[in-house]
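Write out structure tokens for Succinylglutamate desuccinylase.
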Amino acid sequence: MLLSAGIHGNETAPIELLDELIRSIARGDLKPRARILFLFGNPDAMRRGTRFVEQDVNRLFNGRHEQSGGAEALRACELEHLAASFFSLPDRYRLHYDLHTAIRGSKIEQFALYPWKEGRQHSRLELARLRAAGMSAVLLQNKPSIVFSAYTYDQLGAEAFTLELGKARPFGQNQQVNLAPLRLRLEQIIEGREPELDENLEGLQLFSVAREVIKRTDAFTFNLADAVENFSPLEKGYVLAEDAGGSRWVVEEDGARIIFPNP
């Protein structure tokens, strides 16, 4: 199992969780029965308490770092190589959780993003594992991506997920973030004592991506409040955004939600 955090340096709750797991292993309280690799994605940004230094590391995977430069592009390349080396042994089960917190609040606090690859099916067993780990929802991707979990899913054959665990806060201020179910599940996996999963998805909300809203010109207008939370409901027919040339994004579905309305 690969556990990563700190891809964004100011997303501290996952960093603190991995630090606690590492300390438990060092003390002998947690006894690994499986191969495990811990990766902290952007140490420089972690020390500065910023999301990134020059560019977003989580937009530099699946070869995107080759089109860029600078320390963070090199770091993304290094993370790919470390993950590839770790997952290089044949005929092994491969699991990757890339742990994050979100820029903004969320109507659903803890959720997962499940990458997509053509010809590969999303695993019901993995969805059940996410539910057991405290995730309330899963967003099923429908196109390739350039984030870390998409790289390990697409290129390395891992079952890989981005886990969003609440709102980003400074180090030492994550008391309101309940990571107990996730920590328990990780400890069970690490020690080889995970209870058998029954593929029960009761209570787990599944979402799929309907469309992306991407700013193309300076004429772009986004018709939601700056403080709108992830998974806020949208009314059918609502004009979500507009751009030059008459481009409009209109909500076409019942029960639609907004996620990651980030600049």
